[in-house]
Amino acid sequence: MITDVFTTRESQVRSYSRSWPVVFDRAVGSTMYDEDGNGYLDFFAGAGALNYGHNNPRLKKVLIDYLADDRVMHSLDMFTTARRDFLETFDALILKPRNLDYKVVFPGPGGTNAVEAALKLARKVTGRTGVINFTNAFHGMTLGALAVTGNALKRGGAGVPLVHTTPMPYDGYLEGGADFAYLERLLGDSGSGLDKPAAVIVESVQGEGGINAARAEWLRGLSELCTRHGVLLILDDVQMGCGRTGGFFSFEEAGIVPDMVCLSKSISGYGLPMALTLIRPELDIWAPGEHNGTFRGISPAFATAAEAIRLYWSDDALERSTIARGETVRARFAAIAARYPERSLVVKGRGLARGLQFADGDLAGRVCAEAFTRGLLMETSGPEGEVMKILPALTITDEELDRGLAIIDESVAAVLG
């Protein structure tokens, strides 16, 4: 295994390769293989970008055929058959069955682009600058998205003041606190010092923040508060969308309709760069070209995205299996927590976004390291890395899921004794 070029030429900002110091070469389904042929069960799934597994054969065929037929690769926002097919499929199988009416903005290749577009448009529509965000939120690494992110390490890399945002407590952050009493009072009191914000941005489940799942009633309360005060609600579904929590959108369970929705990661279905910002039609006040980018229309991603939607969202089979498998994980994690009552382990998450919270980041990190030696990839999350986090592919087999959970069981035992 030769890694010299990575240490001599690649920036030290790299992170995942420090936890998994092997050179990967191939990947199929829920397994990644290093260059020596060793297999690793993947409970990371590209940080949620591979909900349908590595090199999904149906999606791979669509991609190969697209390339072989000399179809359009790069098109900015020109009309293409691939773009049309995606929009028609997304409308017919995702939006209309959920009674959602959104215009689609293609803001650029990644989730942070989707968030930046939403923040920018919210400020343009309202004429206001402030944005309410939440404790332990993560929304991206560009300056606007970073300003509404909570993590101190990531914020510290900005190099400039991150302004025009006000953090509020996420669901469960204040023990026993009334959900929105403080924010409601600030918004309604002309002497509070809080200028009326343009928007509130929130995740239904905070992935990087520690697998913190907001209750449906909390999300409904937030939506109602925004409506009462004329504040736009932006739902960041970059990591938790595309079926990760069960429904295609993570907010479906709450029965809310956000003003804007940010999607990326698994929207292409194949791990190709793609992002969407969904906006209510009356908010579509952009001037032509006012928000643009060279890579806002990566056509092969349109092709795999449309096929993924047809393949997995023409019925509710994937949604039901994700919820059932998520319950399997919850039960197994609860059994682990019960085995170590003195450790006060906390089971967290929804669907197939699950976590086990330890007392500190050292313990969670050691569990992940033990799992890696046993052939399982998973990461930590939370402000101190105290949560062992899993995001297996939604298409994982029952055997693979059971095998991975057994490795986690062994790894926890190795660390906690």
From TrEMBL:
Gene3D superfamilies: Aspartate Aminotransferase, domain 1, Type I PLP-dependent aspartate aminotransferase-like (Major domain)
Top-level class of the enzyme under EC nomenclature: transferase
Enzyme Commission number(s) from the entry: 2.6.1.76
Swiss-Prot/TrEMBL GO biological process terms: ectoine biosynthetic process
Cofactor: pyridoxal 5'-phosphate
A Pfam entry, by short name: Aminotran_3
The organism's place on the tree of life at top rank: Bacteria
InterPro entries for the chain: Aminotrans_3, Aminotrans_3_PPA_site, Dat, Ectoine_EctB, PyrdxlP-dep_Trfase, PyrdxlP-dep_Trfase_major, PyrdxlP-dep_Trfase_small
Pathway stated in the Swiss-Prot or TrEMBL entry: Amine and polyamine biosynthesis; ectoine biosynthesis; L-ectoine from L-aspartate 4-semialdehyde: step 1/3
GO molecular function: diaminobutyrate-2-oxoglutarate transaminase activity; diaminobutyrate-pyruvate transaminase activity; pyridoxal phosphate binding
Annotated keywords: Aminotransferase, Pyridoxal phosphate, Transferase
UniProt record similarity statement: Belongs to the class-III pyridoxal-phosphate-dependent aminotransferase family.
NCBIfam families the UniProt entry points to: dat, ectoine_ectB, PRK09264.1
UniProt-recorded name of the protein: Diaminobutyrate--2-oxoglutarate transaminase
